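Appendix B. One record, verbatim.
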Amino acid sequence: MTKFNSSKECCEACKAMCDGGDGDCQCDTWVFCGDRERCKERFGECLLKKQRDVLFPALQVSGDEVIWTSGVIFGEGEGIVSMETEYGSLRIKLFSDCAPHSIAYIVELLGSSYCTGCKFHRAEGRGNSWNSEWNNVANSPLGPPFAFIQGTLEAAGVTFNNIPPEACPPIRAGSVAWIGSGPEFFISLANHDEWTTRAYTVFGSVLPEDMDIVEKIARLPTKPDLWNNVIVSALEKPARIWLRRISKTRQDLDLNVDWRSDTSGGS
């Protein structure tokens, strides 16, 4: 039985078995007993597992009484979901290693029939403040427009519980992040270095070749609306979202997206 001092070390041990670059992971799920008081002699135990389906791992027990912490690791070409809209499909690489609670909710949505109620309803383009490389133009205002599209992933028939704060990589073009604890979320159209002090949970990134769809949605007709005493550009016609799982080989996708990188989702 392997033991570690932290869940991070347990996670890293699993990732080390999933670095072949061909999408085949010998470990895709880790389970760690990290509550010293309740785990007792089992404290530090790390279980490394291989699931039949990493997006739908076998769940033995859940709830506040559970003393184990767990997470999943996606190999190349895995962990890709598609946000389907009438304007095109946005393929999103999920960040399982830094946002496990967020990914658990997305997986639950994948199991629902139609994601009824999921939609984009706000669009703020790049205007003249952001250049083609997603950066703010010198001496230009940081908004409005704020260079993002906003929506909700609250679906009828699926219970939503507030997402706790998770790892917060920087907001880059293509970043998919919760607003607060969700279910409101946004997709960024720029590298928002000025938002580094805000606690946004980034749980994925749009694949670079699909950013033109984000741009298309951002250019849809809008109307001014007042949300919580803030004037926003609301879509005249909200764009419905369907979620679909994608599983392709790494040769079929541009997977040059890393939540640790400052350049993911660039031009």
